[in-house]
């Protein structure tokens, strides 16, 4: 075991400034990922889960001024404040990315083999010939049949599942220590999703990589992740091992989310369980708990000040809820 | 239940010209389905199986190559002009993405008013009254009327889209993945809206979705589609408890569990090969190229739908064995024996 986790994010705050508005999509979030470990980051759209992972690596749209505070340490190096050329050496090499939509992540007019080889050339200083050989290895690694023929194909000739396997192969080309997968199976069918998840899990184990899995699907989390951070309105609501957080969720938001998953036992035609109200829009940071307006357990203290993340009795799960932490709500 | 279907689709076929000259994409092939008044019926299958094309053909967004769509027993292809427009109004479509199905420059009131004008309500006061009623039906406050659709959240937008399709008093709603673009916490609210509309207005609803658990809870009956054909159909509970087509079994076994301990023990079905191209579908049973149970017969002829129990049928020669509890060999594979293992270079 290393002393320091591979990725250590502490008190990360991201402010985005556009010509018209200023928002804070990430507000004081902390977590760590160790080598060989998979962390799931769960939240609804607009909860900040994607920005949190991409902003420190300079992956933001143009026209937006990003201001970061806090600390993001990767492999013992501080990423915040690192100049762009330095970040560029890490991005795509030691940190690989998988995006949601495999079609837009690939170049439609270049052969698959070239796209994978390009990554190996760029990041591992390989000769084109060596890189082509590496591409073949990678395509085999991600379980694609008839790999030699596939390398000569274009992305549009492949199915969604195969494309996503190619995207994974591309992400692995730089031999990353950390893989950030942003909704890697959302665009895929359920039958393909199961295979891609097993593949990611298998690769992670085999290559001893760390993985950050950004998703909104609890089923995906359950199968792949070791730990989870539940995000709500730019902040972490709950954090801990999946075996605890998914089985006995403590934060009212986590509980609501898990309770909202339809179960086999639910009678046909019965009401769907959900959460009341709508998620807040990001703007100025909230004074108290952002979930309070939708929460059944809210008390006046919830809106008075921002609830801190407090560890559970055994120290494994952290929850930002004054009611849970005072032990007044049912555990 | 009324015993006359409000919507009946008979042997519907929709083909598109392929980029390969002289070939056709067989998107929907010989599909027959029925919808009774006040019923939610699920249509499930993977992307590319033709479920959206089927929905679009029913409402007339695509042209059927052959087959009939009957609304209250009237064949829509025999109608023209005003009669056709009247019938079309009874069939409404709710699209997946409420961000592209509404005009950003319209206010909610304008969006609804437009639909009401098309429905032929002349008086402004009547339209205003109806707008209010529609907003109330979909659970939106009256004040939303003056907001632009772009100012609304995804869930609110989908409610407006639903209100808009309800404006013309439809008998049938074809809902194409109506909640998959919405956040988990909002999904339940919109699903409950569908349940209520079905109860209050008696609208029949064909619910096209890939989320199997969602469909099970909402729908009384389910059709399973694979590569342009219905492979299994039955009452939801029965079909989910006794899936009797190897494809349905595989589909249902693919749904992940949200409980990590159960999920780790779950056996993941291993898919054989890829979905074949609908331009050149396999002969006989279309699933045979990926089916672990396929025998020579499957190649020879299209398996007929076998009756298994009241209202439950599956188009597989082994349907009766599968219905009795036999599990397709596909599901026996152990999750740990993942296929990629063999392919990893040393």
From TrEMBL, chain A:
<protein>
    <submittedName>
        <fullName>Peptide/nickel transport system ATP-binding protein</fullName>
    </submittedName>
</protein>
<dbReference type="GO" id="GO:0005524">
    <property type="term" value="F:ATP binding"/>
</dbReference>
<dbReference type="Pfam" id="PF00005">
    <property type="entry name" value="ABC_tran"/>
</dbReference>
<dbReference type="InterPro" id="IPR050388">
    <property type="entry name" value="ABC_Ni/Peptide_Import"/>
</dbReference>
<keyword id="KW-0067">ATP-binding</keyword>
<dbReference type="InterPro" id="IPR027417">
    <property type="entry name" value="P-loop_NTPase"/>
</dbReference>
<keyword id="KW-0472">Membrane</keyword>
<dbReference type="InterPro" id="IPR013563">
    <property type="entry name" value="Oligopep_ABC_C"/>
</dbReference>
<feature type="domain" description="ABC transporter">
    <location>
        <begin position="7"/>
        <end position="258"/>
    </location>
</feature>
<dbReference type="Pfam" id="PF08352">
    <property type="entry name" value="oligo_HPY"/>
</dbReference>
<keyword id="KW-0813">Transport</keyword>
<dbReference type="InterPro" id="IPR003439">
    <property type="entry name" value="ABC_transporter-like_ATP-bd"/>
</dbReference>
<dbReference type="InterPro" id="IPR003593">
    <property type="entry name" value="AAA+_ATPase"/>
</dbReference>
<keyword id="KW-0547">Nucleotide-binding</keyword>
<keyword id="KW-1003">Cell membrane</keyword>
<comment type="similarity">
    <text>Belongs to the ABC transporter superfamily.</text>
</comment>
From TrEMBL, chain B:
<dbReference type="InterPro" id="IPR003593">
    <property type="entry name" value="AAA+_ATPase"/>
</dbReference>
<feature type="domain" description="ABC transporter">
    <location>
        <begin position="7"/>
        <end position="252"/>
    </location>
</feature>
<dbReference type="InterPro" id="IPR017871">
    <property type="entry name" value="ABC_transporter-like_CS"/>
</dbReference>
<keyword id="KW-0067">ATP-binding</keyword>
<keyword id="KW-0547">Nucleotide-binding</keyword>
<dbReference type="Pfam" id="PF00005">
    <property type="entry name" value="ABC_tran"/>
</dbReference>
<comment type="similarity">
    <text>Belongs to the ABC transporter superfamily.</text>
</comment>
<protein>
    <submittedName>
        <fullName>Peptide/nickel transport system ATP-binding protein</fullName>
    </submittedName>
</protein>
<dbReference type="InterPro" id="IPR027417">
    <property type="entry name" value="P-loop_NTPase"/>
</dbReference>
<dbReference type="InterPro" id="IPR003439">
    <property type="entry name" value="ABC_transporter-like_ATP-bd"/>
</dbReference>
<dbReference type="InterPro" id="IPR050319">
    <property type="entry name" value="ABC_transp_ATP-bind"/>
</dbReference>
<dbReference type="InterPro" id="IPR013563">
    <property type="entry name" value="Oligopep_ABC_C"/>
</dbReference>
<keyword id="KW-0813">Transport</keyword>
<dbReference type="Pfam" id="PF08352">
    <property type="entry name" value="oligo_HPY"/>
</dbReference>
<dbReference type="GO" id="GO:0005524">
    <property type="term" value="F:ATP binding"/>
</dbReference>
């Amino acid at each position: 075991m290393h002393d320091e986790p591979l990725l250590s994010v502490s008190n990360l705050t991201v402010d985005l400034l556009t010509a018209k508005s200023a928002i804070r999509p990430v507000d004081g979030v902390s977590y760590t990922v160790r080598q060989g470990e998979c962390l799931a980051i769960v939240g609804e759209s607009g909860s900040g889960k994607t920005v949190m992972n991409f902003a420190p690596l300079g992956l933001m749209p143009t026209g937006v001024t990003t201001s970061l505070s806090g600390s993001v340490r990767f492999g013992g190096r501080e990423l915040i404040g690192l100049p762009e050329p330095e970040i560029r050496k890490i991005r795509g090499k030691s940190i690989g990315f998988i995006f949601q939509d495999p079609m837009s992540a690939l170049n439609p007019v270049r052969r698959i083999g070239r796209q994978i080889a390009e990554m190996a050339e760029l990041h591992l200083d390989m000769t084109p010939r060596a890189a082509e050989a590496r591409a073949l290895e990678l395509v085999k690694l991600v379980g694609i049949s008839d790999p030699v023929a596939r390398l000569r194909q274009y992305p549009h000739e492949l199915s969604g599942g195969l494309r996503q396997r190619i995207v994974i192969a591309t992400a692995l080309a730089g031999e990353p220590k950390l893989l950030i997968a942003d909704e890697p199976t959302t665009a895929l069918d359920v039958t393909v999703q199961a295979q891609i998840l097993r593949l990611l899990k298998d690769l992670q184990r085999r290559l001893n990589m760390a993985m950050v899995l950004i998703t909104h699907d609890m089923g995906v989390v359950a199968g792949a992740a070791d730990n989870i951070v539940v995000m709500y309105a730019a902040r972490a609501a709950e954090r801990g091992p999946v075996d605890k957080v998914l089985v006995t969720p403590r934060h009212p938001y986590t509980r609501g989310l898990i309770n909202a998953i339809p179960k086999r036992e639910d009678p046909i035609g019965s009401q769907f369980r959900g959460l009341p109200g709508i998620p807040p829009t990001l703007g100025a940071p909230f004074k108290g708990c952002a979930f309070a307006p939708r929460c059944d357990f809210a008390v006046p203290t919830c809106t008075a000040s921002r609830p801190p993340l407090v560890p559970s009795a055994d120290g494994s799960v952290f929850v930002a809820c004054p009611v849970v932490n005072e032990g007044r709500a049912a555990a | 239940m009324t015993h006359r279907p409000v919507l009946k689709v008979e042997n519907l076929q929709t083909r598109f010209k392929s980029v390969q000259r002289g070939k056709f994409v067989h998107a929907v092939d010989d599909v027959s389905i029925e919808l009774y008044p006040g019923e939610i019926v699920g249509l499930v299958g993977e992307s590319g199986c033709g479920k959206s094309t089927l929905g679009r053909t029913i409402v007339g967004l695509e042209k059927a190559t052959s087959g009939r769509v009957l609304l209250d027993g009237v064949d829509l292809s025999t109608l023209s002009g005003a009669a056709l427009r009247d019938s079309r109004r009874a069939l409404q479509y709710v699209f997946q993405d409420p961000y592209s199905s509404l005009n950003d420059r319209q206010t909610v009131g304008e969006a609804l008013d437009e639909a009401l004008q098309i429905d032929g309500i002349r008086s402004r006061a009547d339209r205003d009254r109806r707008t209010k009623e529609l907003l109330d039906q979909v659970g939106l406050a009256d004040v939303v009327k003056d907001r632009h659709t772009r100012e609304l959240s995804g869930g609110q937008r989908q409610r407006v889209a639903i209100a808009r399709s309800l404006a013309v008093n439809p008998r049938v709603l074809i809902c194409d993945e109506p909640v998959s673009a919405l956040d988990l916490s909002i999904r339940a609210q919109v699903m409950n809206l569908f349940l209520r509309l079905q109860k209050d207005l008696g609208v029949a609803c064909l619910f096209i979705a890939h989320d199997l658990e969602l469909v099970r809870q909402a729908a009384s009956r389910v059709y399973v589609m694979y590569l342009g054909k219905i492979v299994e159909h039955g009452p939801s509970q029965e079909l989910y408890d006794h899936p009797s087509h190897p494809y349905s079994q595989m589909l249902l076994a693919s749904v992940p569990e949200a409980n990590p301990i159960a999920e780790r023990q779950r056996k993941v079905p291993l898919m054989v090969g890829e979905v074949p191209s609908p331009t050149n579908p396999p002969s006989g049973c279309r699933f045979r190229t990926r089916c672990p149970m396929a025998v020579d017969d499957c190649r020879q002829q299209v398996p007929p739908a076998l009756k298994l129990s009241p209202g439950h049928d599956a188009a597989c020669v082994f349907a009766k064995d599968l219905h009795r509890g036999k599990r397709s060999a596909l599901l026996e594979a152990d999750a740990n024996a993942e296929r990629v293992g063999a392919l990893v270079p040393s």
